[in-house]
Amino acid sequence: MKQGIHPDYREVVFKDEDADFAFLTRSTIKTKETIEWEDGKEYPLVKLDISSASHPFFTGKQKLVDSTGRVERFEKRYKKSVNTKEQTIISQSAEEE
Known about the structure:
Elements: E1 10-16, E2 21-27, E3 34-36, E4 42-48, H1 56-59, H2 70-96
Parallel strand pairs: 1-4
Antiparallel strand pairs: 1-2, 3-4
């Protein structure tokens, strides 16, 4: 194995702040933060937004996130599309008669 070309593979703590869940594993990720782990040693820390402890697929709970009206905009656009198609179908059937 060539020396000096591989990243530093070390033990790192990944922590999900929302779920207060952390696990120790090995990684090459670079971070400046550290945390004292359960064994008393200090390890580099990577903060996560989502982990298996907080993801709805694994927890079975739906977490509501405000998407600033994205759903409403989609429904509004979809409703317009459906109404336009219905009007087209109605006008085509009226022309055929």
